[in-house]
Amino acid sequence: MPSVSGARPPLRPEPTARGLASLDPAELAELVTTAWGGMIELSGGLDLERPSRRPGRTVRDVLIPLGSWPEHLRFERLVDEVRTRRVPARDDVGARNALVVAAHRDADPADIDAALRRARDAALAFLRSPEAEQLGRELADSPVGALPLSGVIAASAYQLALRALDVAPPDDVPAGLLDAGVGTLVDTTGALAARSGVSTTFAVLTQLGGWVSGSGPECWTTMRLPEGLPAAELGWPSLEGAAADVLDGSAGRRPVLSLVLARRLRLHDVPGLITLLPALEAVPGLPGGAGLRAATRALGRAGHLMGQLGAVVRG
To answer: Which one, 61, 125, 137, 170, has the greatest CB density within 10 A?
Structure first.
């Protein structure tokens, strides 16, 4: 996985760069393996009947849609659509998930473990296949619009990390899963910036290290940052905080502005971060996007709030 260190000019992606999808598929498979391995490890010790933090949903209800079932082949369908260039039917994710949960309401721990392993194996089977290097850069459908196929498969790490936080305290979630979730969040945000024609560099720093993405029109590059790197040394617009807070804020689980004012998230170069607003505005269905857009607008137009945030930004 690429990493950077030292004084930082803006990242300038090559015109053909497509973020994590431009990595060697074997390298991307390592990130996917870590994410799915963390979820499988975590799920094995959970009480499926216990309520999750999602209203009205048990731990079982949250875990079932993550797996591959006969009526819900997560990655096989996606790869087949790209391979055959078939335009997918409009996918109502909520309705599909509800059907899968209803069909497997009596799933026991062994059933769920097997389904999670099938999903992991299908993702890795593609990334380790001869067609991954070329086909993985082709566009595939995703909840936030067309993204490279390998990037969509890798972005499952973000969903896994969020669902892990839905069913377990942050300290119980494997660190590798949280880090992979943050990395794929940064990569997807870089893709959205590139799609909107925004040229910017931004980083997300957590206790586990960090990730940076640099975008240009229709191109972006994503890299891992070494652990313990001070945000002030970077010189890039950046967001700093615990991985769980970053993930929860991005998905709207907790209000971004509240996390900032409580100093759980720290912002560096707020005006630079605001350059991402066009990318967020362009994706109405972005998970947590409404909260992110509202927080970004508030930061941009409220001078008195900027004053309140001054200590946070400098910190």
So the answer is: 61
Answer whether 200's CB lies under 8 Å from 219's CB. no
| Distance in angstroms (rounded) separating the CA atoms of residues 198 and 274 | 11
Whole-number Å distance between alpha carbons of 120 and 68 = 9
Predicted model pTM: 0.87
More confident residue, 272 or 7: 272
Three-state SS at 145: coil
Per-residue tokens: 169: 């305290």
What letter does residue 53 receive in the DSSP assignment?
Answer: S
For residue 185, give both structure tokens: 């969040």
Rounded (10°) CA dihedral 165, 167, 172, 178? -30
* Paired sense of beta strands 238-241 and 200-206, if any: parallel
Residues in the chain: 315
Q: Which residue(s) pair with 239 in the sheet?
A: 204, 267
Rounded to the nearest 10 degrees, how much is the dihedral formed by the CA atoms of 127, 23, 31, 6? 170
What is the distance between the alpha carbons of residues 245 and 151, in angstroms, rounded to a whole number? Answer: 23
* The amino acid at 125: A
Residue-wise pLDDT tens digits, 63-88: 999 999 988 888 888 898 899 887 66
